[in-house]
Amino acid sequence: MLFRKRHSEAEKEVEEVTAKASEICAAKIRTRRTAQNIESEITQIQRQISIEQRSRGDRDEIGKIFAEKRARFEMLSAEVYQLSCFLDKLGSMLAERKRWFVHMRQSLSLIVRCNFFCYVSLRPSFSGQLHVSHSKQTIEPVLNTESRHSHDRSAARSTRSLSGGERSFATACFILALWDVMDSPFRCLDEFDVFMDLVNRRLCMAMMLKAAEKKPGCQFVFLSPLNTSQLQLTNNPNVDLKVFEMAAPRNKPPETSFSQ
C-alpha cells in the first residue's frame, strides 16, 4: 500500500511538472543530459539574469519604459508626417502664388503701358510708350514728339531730353496710367502743371477729371500754384468738383533803417 501511494504521488508530481513545462514548451525535448547538469545550467542562467537586472534594471520596468517610448515615437512620427504634408501643401501654394504673381505682374505692366500710350496720344503730335524691365526693376518712358504715326526711331527721346512742359505732361500721363491699376481711395498731385502751357494744362486737367469720373469712390486732390480760372472747368454731374483758392500772400512791411 505504501508503494502504491508513493507511486501515485510521484505520478501526480510528474503531471504537475509536465503541465508547467508545457506552458514554456509544448513539445517534449528528448535529451541525454542529466537533471543535475540541467539544474546547474539553470542556476547559471538565473545568476546571469540577476546580474543583468542589477546592471540594466528590471525586465518588467524596462518593458514598460519601452512601451511608453514606443507610443511617444509613434505619436511624434504621426506629427512629423502631418507637418511634412503641411509643408508640401505650403510649398505648392507658394509656387502657385509665385505663378499668379508673375502672371498678374505681366498683366498690370501691359495695362499700364497701354494706358500710358492712350493718355500720351491725346496730345497732338505726341506719342510714347513705356519700357518695363522686371529684372532691372525699372520703367523708362520713351516719347516721340514728331508724330504719333512716325516710325522714325531717331525721333524717340527719353524724358531727359524733353522740355519742362513735355516732361510734366508725360509725368501726368504716367501717374494716370498707374492710377488705373490702383485701388487707393485718395489720389493727390502737387504742382503737376507748373511748366505746362495753357493748352496742355487744359488737356491734362480734362484727363484728370475723366479719371475722377471713372473712380467715383475715390477722392482726388490737385494742388497748383497757378490760376485755375483760365482752365474753364465745367460742372460735371458725375464729378463733385470743388475749387478752393487761397488768398494772395501779404506783402512784407519794409524794414526801417536807422542811421546816425
Considering the chains and any ligands shown, give keywords for the structure.
single chain; 260 residues; mainly alpha; Rossmann fold; 3-stranded antiparallel β-sheet; two-stranded parallel ribbon; 54% helix; 10% strand; rod-shaped; disordered C terminus
Report what the structure shows:
- Helices cover 54% and strands 10% of the residues.
- With 260 residues, it is mainly alpha-helical.
- The strands form 2 sheets. Strands 1-2-3 form a 3-stranded antiparallel beta sheet, with helices on one face. A two-stranded parallel sheet has the order 4-5.
- Strand 1 (127-133) and strand 2 (138-144) form a beta hairpin.
- The longest helix has 62 residues, at 59-120.
- The protein starts with a helix and ends in a 37-residue tail after the last strand.
Summarize the helices and strands and which ones pair or pack:
Elements: H1 2-24, H2 35-56, H3 59-120, E1 127-133, E2 138-144, E3 156-158, H4 164-179, E4 186-190, H5 198-214, E5 219-223
Parallel strand pairs: 4-5
Antiparallel strand pairs: 1-2, 2-3
Helix pairs in contact: 3-4, 4-5
The description of the largest β-sheet is: 3 strands, antiparallel
What is the CATH homology-level superfamily of the domain at 95-231?
P-loop containing nucleotide triphosphate hydrolases
> Unreliable segments (pLDDT under 50, ≥5 consecutive)?
256-260
CATH architecture of the domain at 95-231: 3-Layer(aba) Sandwich
Strand/helix succession: HHHEEEHEHE
